[in-house]
């Protein structure tokens, strides 16, 4: 079964940190780029961070809003991509989704209290 499963969300205070995980199954994980998106209530889904395939040298790219605060990494042996989130702000509150090609996870909720 081809799927992505996110975990690691939760409630954190302003300035806190969280690490999200996205575990892939059912496809050759290392051959695909993986991206994190988020969707806040009443807003459109937006890109957060991405990491390329092994062929691309695992190139990394971030949205301007999280540059310098978030870090994306991957462990191909574990079929897992991580999103390390530091200096969290209330405006980071959203459901965070993992995406690879046409596959989407169900999301994990991140809530940052002020």
Walk me through this protein's architecture.
The chain is mainly β. Helix content is 0%, strand content 52%. The chain is built from no helices and 11 strands. The strands form 2 sheets. Strands 2, 4, 5, 6, 9, 10 and 11 form a 7-stranded mixed sheet that branches. The termini are far apart.
In short:
The protein has 114 residues and is mainly beta. The chain is built from no helices and eleven strands.
Show the helix and strand layout:
Blueprint: E1 3-7, E2 10-13, E3 18-25, E4 34-39, E5 46-51, E6 60-62, E7 70-75, E8 80-85, E9 94-100, E10 103-104, E11 108-113
Parallel strand pairs: 2-11
Antiparallel strand pairs: 1-3, 3-8, 4-5, 4-9, 5-6, 7-8, 9-10, 9-11
Q: Sheet with the most strands?
A: 7 strands, mixed
What is the count of helical runs?
0
* Number of beta-strand segments: 11
Helix content: under 10%
| CA gyration radius, whole angstroms | 13 Å
Question: Span from first to last CA?
Answer: 40 Å
* Assembly state of the chains shown: single chain
Anisotropy-based shape: globular
Q: On the 0-100 scale, what is the average pLDDT?
A: 96
Strand content: over 45%
SSE pattern, N- to C-terminal = EEEEEEEEEEE
**Which residue ranges are poorly predicted, with pLDDT under 50 across at least 5 consecutive positions?**
none
Structural class call reads mainly beta
List keywords for this structure.
four-stranded antiparallel sheet, 114 residues, mainly beta, seven-stranded mixed sheet
